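Dear colleagues,

As part of the handover before I leave the project, I'm documenting each prediction I ran so the next person doesn't have to rerun anything. This entry is a single chain, and its sequence is reproduced below.
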Amino acid sequence: MPWWFWTLLWLFLLSAAALFLVLCGIRLFRGFMRLLDETGEAADRLHLGEAAPLAAPEDPSRPEPGLAAVFGDPREARRFRDAGKVERREARRRRRVEAKRRRGQPQRVRDLDLP
């Protein structure tokens, strides 16, 4: 085979490979841009960046958080912690009883707070 045939063959193969790489790059770029558009739409639907931080409900019985709590009386801190544990436990029990009542499920006797 003559030398010009090999030159043409390699020229064709290299140009086909270059065209393939360019088409793959274009497809990859379009897919990336589509991903960015969908991410932006999802962020708009979720209102990302605009949400205010969740604030705890104000409870006047709780002490003010901060440095004063570090230097406070340990017995007083323990009393606040124990009272909070009891309140949270009771709130969970009330929510559990109410949810079971709404679903029509049987209640636990200890949850009914009978005398």
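The mean pLDDT is 85. The CA atoms of residues 4 and 84 lie 89 Å apart.

All the best with the project,
I.
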